[in-house]
Amino acid sequence: MGLAENLAHLQSRLAAACARAGRSPAEVTLLAVSKTHPPEVVQEAARLGVGCFGENKVQEAKAKIPQCSGALRWHFIGHLQSNKARDAVALFEMVESVDSLGLAQELNKRCEAAGKHLPVLLEVNLAGEASKFGYAPERLLAELNELNALPRLAIHGLMTVPPWKPSPEQVRPYFRALRELKQRCEEVLGAPLPHLSMGMSGDFEVAIEEGATIIRVGTALFGERAVRRPEAA
User: Fold this and answer.
1) Predicted structure pTM score
2) How far is CA 108 from the centre of its chain?
3) Structural domain count of the chain
4) Domain limits at 208?
5) CATH code, domain carrying 159
6) pLDDT of 58 strictly over 70
């Protein structure tokens, strides 16, 4: 299927999941994960009505974003090194992957220098996987007030990348745990956090049923990424 057909199928799946959960599709943002896809593909998706895109490498985004429509919204969703914080502040309207107090402080400093305020999501590593970044839940709760005190950052919610499982239903407990952690964070802060970024191409329906407000979808929209093969000798 082409991009238009993929998008229509995605929107149908999204709407059905929302109906099962008694939610409006307007409550869920489709974040198109555009990493490795060229500006022309982003522009085609934009013409079809996709308005929000996610990148996970600052250098790729730095080359791509200026070639795309200025009306698009960009989220950073990968691991962000502190030495890339200045570029991230310049390029993105939200960083979804704040995983330490040190990174948050560096982003705050760069926002101060740029005269900007930056919405962020706090990334949580619910399963404690060594291969993934993110806060352990208890550490997040312990540092939450310090994070919230940074004047140039606005905490909008939480993000997670759960462990891979063969069935979406096996991932549901992680999505539920993130929703429950968000509620605990709201109790600490005494204020609502509007966003839960969770769910990808294979499991976003379950994420929506558990309260996702942002789903990060790449393959189901753009198709499988091409694998570069070495040229034959």
Assistant:
1) 0.94
2) 19
3) 1
4) 3-222
5) 3.20.20.10
6) yes
